[in-house]
Write a structure and sequence with these properties.
alpha+beta, 2 domains, 3-stranded antiparallel sheet, flat, transmembrane helix
Length: about 300
Amino acid sequence: MASASLRAPFSVDIQGDQLVVYQADQEEGIVTRTICTLDLRHQHSFYLSNDGVVCRDVQGFEFSLETHDSDETHELLTALSRALLRHGRRKTQRRLMGVFVLFVVLCLGAPWLGRALEWPVAMPAAQVITPSVPSPPKPDLAKRSAPAPIASEPRQSAADVAPDDGWTLPREIRATLPQKLHNAAERKLFTVDYSSGHARTLYVFSDPSCPNCQRLESSLNTLSDAFNVVVFPVPVIGKEKSIAAITPVLCLPPEQRKTAWDRLFDAAPEGVNLGKPQLKPASEGVELKAAQPAGTCDVAEKALGINQTA
């Protein structure tokens, strides 16, 4: 006869990107058994196989969640499905609420902005400054010679002068930079795509060995819900160490790079499996490609060199 703790109902909690599966004693309100914890950024899916629940991530790695009979198996899969659907609805509601708040702010700020644009701008009166130059002595009319030509210094056009905002790129280069980044991102050779389908795009140059880049990573994942986030990996800080880490990521197909890129920033394990032994990956080709040394992917090395030059 199974113990009461093993027959406790399954519970699934989702906090941020972390999913936890456990069994709890309803009367005492304590956790009696933890099944696993998962990072939802790896896009896990669940399905039934041989009277068991199997978890599979986007790269094809699988492991099973242990249950004691078919009733527990169906109960566990039902709890997972309900939790994921509820989490998806909450994310949709938060996005809609954000759009609604933005719309209200725009409606309230539009009249003030219109009045601000109509206000006249006071321009300072132009002043004519006459330089004081000592008058030369009158030359002898008999010995008057032709005036010497005055060399005019070339004036630097306003378009060549960089704005005083700390960025040294001239205006004409800034004007073409977004289109160049867009064209490079469309080739899918140099980038790791966080999200797509949004109206605006944020381009980021990131090095996994850079402390500031590591601190910024969680913010980029949050921004990817509202913007297209495209990362150009560069080995500026880590040099050879970063090249060895980034090259296998760029060797992967574009749809698999994000998960491999996350592993460079997340030192925590993907999940704690207290059930059956982990199954082999469904696709050994993906694992072999991810384990390639840095010198075996010529396209990735060239792309990384172009990113570093940019």
